[in-house]
Amino acid sequence: MGIDLKAGGRNKKVHRTAPKSDNVYLKLLVKLYRFLVRRTESKFNKVILKRLFQSKANRAPMSLSKLSTFMKGKETKVAVIVGTVTDDVRLFDVPKLTVAALRFTETARARIVKAGGECMTFDQLALARPTGKDTLLLRGPKSQREANKHFGKAPGVPGSSTKPYVRSEGRKFEKARGRRKSCGYKN
């Protein structure tokens, strides 16, 4: 059986064109940014729209400490994160920041506001900066998920630092052969 080329042939478009989520607020944001992409010549809006479609694993959270590091010397700009802004207890002093994000954790929002900063939503950002002028588009580290630590060369193979899937952490679990010289070999 062949491919019906008249009906469109192979599906070559594998990227998302809409979010998988049924969240009505997200759908409204998509509607708004579709309009902005159509009516403005701004690449910024295209990127925001593309990121709104992404899965949760690809919308990695960003901590306040990382945010403050990236915003050093750029205090007049608005930090834009299509994802969650989380608190970091290791950061002692939070600088005055203007941040637009999909979500803020309670403590992160409280600390930003207490420092005299502002937490914006994406519809507020669209009104304030419709073309993305004076904004800094950031994203969190995607490879820091727990699941990513298990990817790579098989655990136990020489030169591998991949985390094994272990039933339990303890003396009896995966601590003998291949883990020490006295039992067989050590990798």
Word description of this protein:
- With 187 residues, the chain is α/β, with parallel strands linked by helices.
- Helix content is 26%, strand content 13%.
- The protein is built from five helices and five strands.
- It has helices at 24-39, 43-52, 64-70, 106-114, 122-128; strands at residues 62-63, 78-86, 98-104, 118-120, 135-138.
- Strands 1, 2, 3, 4 and 5 form a five-stranded parallel sheet that branches.
- It is flat and about 70 Å long.
- The mean pLDDT is 93.
Provide the descriptors you would attach to this structure in a database record.
187 residues; alpha/beta; five-stranded parallel sheet; 5 helices; 13% strand
Straight-line distance between termini? 51 Å
Q: Give the ordered list of helices and strands.
A: HHEHEEHEHE
Low-confidence segments, given as residue ranges, are: none
Helix content: 25-40%
Tell me about the largest β-sheet: 5 strands, parallel
Shape: flat
Helix count, DSSP H or I runs of 4 or more residues: 5
Structural class comes to: alpha/beta
- Whole-number mean pLDDT: 93
Global Rg: 23 Å
How many strands appear in the DSSP assignment? Answer: 5
**What share of residues are in beta strands?**
5-15%
